[in-house]
């Protein structure tokens, strides 16, 4: 009975009032095609810019490493090149490849000729090699065994002549790197002198 009265009351209410009181349904408009296209275009341009920058950096790094490799093949140590800018290194390589010299290349080559490395392996005894410890650095080995030939390029590989019959190679990644093995293990790695 109560529902009948309710329906009768609603029936007498004007439909305009009911529509006015009802919440408005929002229309979900699809995004405009033009706006989506602009977003896609902006994303593609950003990818292109980032890709170009990464490629340029990779090419520059490769070019610089090739220049450093060329200069180290001429006897200039990589550590000595840290005093020069990338542009100076590129310029020096171009000048040297052309077969000419300028003030910069003469300075680089002069520094290379002042290198402390010997041209031939230093002679040591097996007792001196046995005294080497794993914690010794590049400089400590040189001070203990003497200046010798360094055949490394980018890393240090010291070559010593042991007892006049054998050669031993002692590698170091840097001047601060440690030997990492005992002298006895180095003696097991001796190579006959040729």
Key traits:
194 residues; alpha+beta; Beta-lactamase Inhibitory Protein, Chain:B, domain 1; 2 domains; 8 helices; 5 strands; 11% strand
Descriptive account of the structure:
It is a single chain. This protein has helices spanning 2-12, 15-21, 33-73, 86-97, 103-113, 126-130, 138-145, 183-188; strands at 122-124, 149-150, 156-162, 166-172, 191-192. By secondary structure, the protein is an alpha+beta fold. The protein has 2 domains: 33-113, no CATH class; 122-192, Beta-lactamase Inhibitory Protein, Chain:B, domain 1 (2-Layer Sandwich), CATH 3.30.1450. Strands 1, 2, 3, 4 and 5 form a 5-stranded mixed β-sheet that branches. Helix 3 packs across helix 4. It starts with a helix and ends with a strand.
Short description:
The chain is about 50% helix and about 10% strand. It is of the alpha+beta class. Helix 3 (about 35-75) packs across helix 4 (about 85-95).
**What is the β-strand count?**
5
Helix-strand sequence: HHHHHEHHEEEHE
Structural class: alpha+beta
Number of domains: 2
Q: How many helices in DSSP terms?
A: 8
Return Rg in Å: 38 Å
Mean pLDDT: 81
Beta-strand share of residues: 5-15%
Global geometry: elongated
The main pleated sheet reads as: 5 strands, mixed
Assembly form of the protein: single chain
Roughly what percent helix? 40-55%
- Which stretches are low in confidence, meaning pLDDT under 50 for 5 or more residues running? none
Terminal CA distance reads 120 Å
Organism: Acetanaerobacterium elongatum
Keywords: Membrane, Transmembrane, Transmembrane helix
Protein name: DUF4367 domain-containing protein
């Amino acid at each position: 009975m109560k529902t009948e009265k309710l329906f009768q009351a609603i029936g007498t209410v004007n439909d305009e009032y009911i529509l006015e009181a009802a919440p408005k349904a929002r229309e979900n408009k699809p995004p405009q095609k033009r706006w989506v296209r602009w977003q896609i275009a902006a994303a593609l341009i950003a990818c292109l810019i980032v890709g170009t920058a990464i490629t340029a950096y990779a090419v520059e790094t490769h070019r610089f490493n090739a220049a450093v490799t060329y200069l180290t093949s001429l006897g200039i140590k990589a550590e000595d090149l840290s005093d020069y800018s990338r542009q100076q290194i590129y310029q020096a390589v171009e000048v040297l490849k052309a077969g000419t010299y300028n003030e910069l290349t003469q300075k680089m080559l002069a520094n290379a000729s002042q290198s402390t490395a010997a041209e031939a392996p230093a002679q040591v005894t097996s007792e001196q090699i046995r005294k080497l410890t794993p914690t010794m650095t590049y400089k400590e080995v040189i001070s203990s065994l003497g200046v010798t030939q360094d055949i490394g390029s980018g890393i240090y590989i010291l070559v010593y002549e042991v007892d006049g019959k054998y050669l031993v190679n002692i590698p170091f990644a840097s001047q601060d790197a440690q030997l990492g093995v005992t002298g006895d293990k180095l003696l097991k790695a001796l190579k006959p002198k040729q």
